[in-house]
Design a protein that fits this description.
binds NADP nicotinamide-adenine-dinucleotide phosphate; 10 helices; alpha/beta; 6-stranded parallel β-sheet; 38% helix
């Protein structure tokens, strides 16, 4: 067990739920590999207590933290400033805390997602599921890469986009029901799941099972190896990419933003893959 002292630098991640997050695994592996006197802690934060929690982290001299569902958008109002592209997205996944208590937000999800598109190529048409903080980063990534049409579906209607977004003409809103989702999948080369669906045992989406096939690429931001959505997409013969690659790439960028040091990329990647392989057993 590592010994901590008053000099140990503390980082963390806030979310609700938080127990599934792999960020503590690879951050702490990275600190060990670099011999740094730092630790990364998961904090369960209820939405009602977000403001108190954020102010508390600053008071406790935490150096920086990551933000996961459902706080990526609601945290913005507690921050002193945002770096691009977090300022246009109004969604943040990394927050640096300065010694005077100021907090700067950044969004590394977009870079994590773009690293996948770079390898896989850019489709003309894509279906995006979800409209939370991560989905908004994916949307920007798709548009900036040159995707012409984004069919965009969310369980709660109307949350997809601010009316003044420069990419609003590329959006075709899709109602959240099986028939409309199947139609949108049939027109898309790529389907991205940026909802929280997949973490619970009972989660499923029948439209995917009925319309994915070997011609489609399915990217799921979630990395739960037991996700029914991932399992079904593979059964349909679609090319499937889970959230582990995005986790690694956004994590590397976030590590460098929050600590100011180069990230040990191979340690980060191998610790994530080892943990996922263990969970899949
Ligand atoms: P968020 O802001 O809380 O948004 C959650 C989204 O999921 C919303 O669109 C919500 O729809 C939808 N949703 C939740 N439960 C649903 C259900 N039962 N049926 C249909 N839709 C449902 O979360 P986020 O930060 O955008 O993250 C979304 C997911 O992506 C999370 O699971 C997160 O772990 C994952 N993620 C992974 C990475 C990675 O590096 N691999 C990075 C970022 C995020 P409503 O608007 O209707 O509530």
């Amino acid at each position: 067990m590592k010994a901590f002292s008053g000099r140990t630098r503390v980082y963390g991640i806030i979310g609700d739920p938080i127990s599934h997050s792999l960020s503590p695994v690879f951050w702490n592996a990275a600190f060990s590999a670099l011999g740094e006197d730092s630790v990364y802690v998961p904090f369960h934060v209820d939405s009602q207590k977000l403001g108190d929690a954020v102010r508390g982290l600053a008071c406790l001299s935490v150096k920086g933290f990551n933000v996961t569902s459902p706080h990526k958008e609601s945290i913005v109002k507690f921050l002193s400033r945002l770096q691009p592209p977090a300022n246009s997205l109004r969604a943040v996944n990394s927050v640096k805390i300065f010694s005077n208590g100021e907090m700067e937000g950044s969004n590394t999800d977009i870079g994590g997602f773009l690293s996948i598109l770079k390898k896989e190529g850019v489709p003309k048409k894509a279906l995006l599921l979800g409209a939370g903080g991560a989905a908004k980063a994916v949307f920007l990534g798709l548009c900036e890469s040159g995707v012409e049409t984004v069919f965009w579906a969310n369980r709660t209607p109307g949350k997809q986009l601010e009316p003044d977004s420069k990419y609003k003409t590329r959006v075709v809103p899709v109602p959240w029901n099986e028939i409309d989702l199947i139609k949108a999948i049939s027109k898309s080369e790529l389907v991205v799941n940026a909802t929280s669906l997949g973490w619970n045992k009972t989660d499923s989406l029948s439209a995917l099972q009925k319309s994915l096939n070997f011609r489609k690429l399915y990217i799921d931001l979630n990395y739960c190896s037991k996700s029914n959505l991932l399992i079904e997409a593979k059964k349909c013969g679609a090319r499937v990419i889970d959230g582990s690659e995005m986790l690694v790439n956004q994590g590397i960028e976030s590590f460098e933003f929050l600590t100011g040091n180069s990230a040990p990329q191979e340690i980060i990647r191998s610790s994530v893959l080892a943990c996922l392989a263990k969970e899949a057993q």
